[in-house]
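Loading example: each entry is read as two labelled lines plus one structure line.
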Amino acid sequence: MGTIKDIQAGIIEDFEMFDDWIQKYEYLIDLGKELAPIEEKYKTEDSLIKGCQSRVWLHAEKQDEKIIYTADSDAIMTKGIIAILINVLSNQKAAEIVSADLSFIDAIGLKEQLSATRANGLVSMIKKMKLYALALNNK
Amino acid sequence: MFDVNKIREQFPILKRKVNDKDLVYFDNGATTQKPQSVIDAVSNYYQEENANVHRGVHFLSGLATDKFEATRKTIQQFISAKHNHEIIFTKGTTDSINLVANGFRSLLKKGDEIIISELEHHSNIVPWQMCCEISGSTLKVIPLLDNGSLDMENFNNLLSENTKLVAVSHVSNTLGTINPIKEIIEKSHLIGAKVLIDGAQAASHICLNMQELDADFYCFSAHKMYGPTGVGVLYGKEEILNTLPPYQGGGEMIKEVSFEKTTYASLPYKFEAGTPNIGGVIAFKSSIDFIRELGVKNITKYEDGLLQYATSEILKIEGARLYGTSKNKSGIISFNIKGIHPYDIGTIVDKMGIAIRTGHHCTQPIMKRYNIPGTVRISLAVYNTKTEVDICIGAIKKAQEMLS
C-alpha cells in the first residue's frame, strides 16, 4: 500500500486517460460496483453521512495503527465517489488521514463533475472520514 | 393556431446550451422559464417606472401604483374572483399558506380539527402542524390509494363537526394527481369547514374560476406560471379574509397608528405589509397575459397530449414503474427504474443537457407511502415538445445502460 500522496497521483493518472465525462462516470460506476461491502450491522442511523442526497453509510475501525474504512450507498455514483476516497484514505495511519491534502479532487475535476448538492456530499464524506480518524486515533 | 415553435421562440433560455447540449427543461414543476415579455417587464420597471407604490403623489409613484394594481385586476379576471380586493399579493404559495395558517390559529381551539392529505407538499403540511401546535387543534390526514389518488371514502369519515379547515392541493407536485377539489369543497362546506386549495401546480395548467369552485382560499406562485420569482397570490373570500387577523405589521397595512391603538387598513392592504415586490408583481401581469393569449384550455389540451406521449414512452423503458397513475392527471410524471437510484439517473442525464428533478420533491410522506428514497420527475410546460421527450427518454436509456 502506497502513501496517500502516491495513491492520489495514481488516480490523477487514471483520469488523464479519459476523454469525456462518460468515461469518467463509467469509471466511477465501476468503482462503485467493486466497492467491498460494509457489514450490515454498521448500516445505522449514526453511520449515515448528512448532506448527501442519497444515503451513504460510513464505518471506520482501527487495525494495527491503521484506519480501515468500509462504506455503502443506495446510489451507485455516490458509491463510486466514496470508493475513490476509501482507496486514498483507507489503510493509512490516522494522523496522515487527518492532515491529508486531497488535491486530487481538484486535479481530476471531481467537484465540477458533480452537481452542487453532490459536491456538498463529497465535502461531508471527507469531513466524516477525517473525524473518524481523529476519534479513533485517540482511542 | 397552437404553434409550439412560436411559443419556444419567446423563451430566450431555451436557446442556450447546457454541457454543450441543447437544453431540455423538464423541471417546470419547480419553476417555469420566462418569456421575453416577462423579462422585459421586469427590466422596464427598473429602467422606466421604479417608485414605491400607494404612497407618493409624484408621477412615477402613480405609474407604478397603476401598473401594480393592474396586475391585481388581471388576476381577478384570470381566476374569476368576485372582487379585486380578494387578491392578496404574497411572496409565493408557501407564504400564502402561512398567512392563512397564521391567521387561522387564533380562530381555533382545542378539539378543532384541520384535514390535509398524504400527498401534500411540505409547504401545505408544516404550516398546519405549526398552527395545530399553537392552537391545540388536531391534524388529520386523508390517505392515498395505490394509484396516487385521495381515498375519498376515508375523507368522508374524517369530516366531522370538529373540522374547521381542509387544506389540499389542486394538483400533486409529485404524482400529478388532479384532486377532486370541487367535491372536497362541497362536502366541507356542508359541515361548515373552510377550504384552502394549494394551486401551485395547477394555476398555469388548468382553467380556474373561483366563483364556480367556491374555494375559501386558493394559493399560487407567479414563478410556476412563467412569471418572476418572489411573487404569489392568496385568493380569499372577502368575508373570510375579514375575519382573519393581519399576518405582519408594518407600513401599508394600517389605517391609523398611535401608541394607544392602531387600526388596520381594509382588504387587500391589511395583508400586504411593507414594500411589496413591485417589479415582480408588474411583470406577473405579462406572464398572465402570455397564458391568456394562448388560452388555458389550449394549454391543458396540449400538455395532456404530451403527458400521454411521455407516459407511454417511459413505460416502454425496461423496469420502469410509474408513481401516480390516477385517471385525472396534470403534466407531472414520477417514476423509477428497477435497480437504479433516481439520483444516478438525474446526474447522468444532466450531462446530456436535460433538467429533470430527482428526490423526494418536498413530499416525504409520499416517499414513505411507496417505500422509496425518491423518484425521477418530469414536469411539463407549454413549451415542451415530443422531440424533447424523445431526447430525454434516449438519455434515460443511456443512463440505464451505463448503470447496469
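The two ends of chain A are 24 Å apart (CA to CA).
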